[in-house]
Specification:
Structural class: mainly alpha
Order of helices and strands: HHHEEHHHHHHH
Largest sheet: 2 strands, antiparallel
Number of strands: 2
Distance between the termini: 24 Å
Strand content: 5-15%
Shape: globular
Number of helices: 10
Strand order of the largest sheet: 1-2
Radius of gyration: 16 Å
């Protein structure tokens, strides 16, 4: 699992080499309960941003610190809140997890944070980014051909249909087809448990 200490070491590596560190943040989240626990914690964090009317704007695996909780289970911490406002050009990893509308310059919103949360949770569950590419066109082509439910059924057949449906809902390319708010998405997630 990625701990704060490990994140600092990886940040130093990234600064020294310029390499992306997506490979370093994948943990062993083989238990379905871990995936659900991460989803609940991530949406609770995004809910705070929604209440403050400050979406994160760059939810991705390397901005999510996951550690073993001393009391058992996992602890998730969201990093780099709002830093996307200071960047002129997104890093490739940001583009791999960004909602389609964000790739075209639309400001961050609860709906875009929900999309990137689903993409990040997919990554934690499977160990692979749902879309990769170096240009917006390449990534958009992958988003439009990507089948989250089908991918999960092959890679993680233990993920039940209600959770797969919930992730697919948040992962919809059109913002209006996603949950209308983080609060609504979190409520729907809790009803799948």
């Amino acid at each position: 699992r990625t701990t704060v200490k490990a994140r600092a070491a990886v940040d130093e590596l990234h600064a020294a080499t310029g390499s992306e560190y997506l490979d370093y943040v994948a943990g062993d989240f083989s238990r379905l309960a871990d995936v659900r626990a991460l989803a609940v914690q991530l949406l609770n964090a995004l809910l705070v941003g929604e209440h403050l009317r400050q979406p994160h704007g760059d939810v991705k695996p390397s901005n999510l610190i996951i550690a073993d909780h001393p009391g058992g289970g996992l602890f998730l911490q969201v990093q780099d809140w709002g830093l996307t406002l200071a960047r002129e050009h997104p890093a490739p990893e940001t583009m791999w997890f960004a909602a389609p509308e964000r790739l075209y310059g639309v400001p961050a919103s609860s709906q875009s944070d929900l999309f990137t949360a689903a993409a990040s949770l997919f990554y934690f569950a499977t160990g692979t980014a749902p879309a990769q590419g170096s240009t917006v066109d390449e990534i958009m082509a992958e988003w439009h051909s990507f089948d989250l439910r089908g991918s999960l059924s092959v890679v993680r057949p233990d993920i039940d249909q209600p959770l797969a449906d919930w992730l697919s809902w948040l992962f919809h390319p059109a913002p209006a087809q996603r949950a209308p708010s983080v609060a609504y998405a979190l409520d729907a997630l809790m009803r799948t448990m």
